[in-house]
Write a structure and sequence with these properties.
Structural class: mainly beta
CATH topology: Immunoglobulin-like
Shape: globular
Number of domains: 1
Largest sheet: 6 strands, mixed
Strand content: over 45%
Radius of gyration: 13 Å
Helix content: under 10%
Number of helices: 0
Number of strands: 10
Distance between the termini: 19 Å
Length: 96
């Protein structure tokens, strides 16, 4: 069983994609991967994961939210985990 992962970071204060955002993917206390968003704010992990619990640690371009951490349970399949961030709030959801 394999798991693939992608993300998209949007700066909702500017209404633009957030490029150059580092996203650390941690599983079982180990670094499972590191992503950096492209000019469109998108990134995809270049290797498959095994099903399990992972932490996605975003380092967004916000003067207030300097680190946003999400813990997710990933089963077999593809997961897209976007982050919307501004100086005033942040949100995430399971994308498609």
């Amino acid at each position: 069983m394999t798991v693939t992962l992608s993300t998209h970071v949007l700066d909702t204060a500017t209404g633009r994609p957030a490029s150059g955002v580092r996203v650390d993917v941690l599983g079982d206390g180990e670094v499972a991967g590191m992503l950096v968003t492209d000019a469109d704010g998108r990134a995809r992990l270049d290797r498959a994961l095994t099903p399990g619990t992972y932490r996605l640690v975003f380092h967004p371009p916000s003067p207030f939210f300097t680190r946003v951490e999400l813990q997710v349970e990933l089963a077999e399949g593809h997961y897209h985990v976007p982050l919307l961030v501004s100086p005033f709030g942040c949100a995430s959801y399971r994308g498609s």
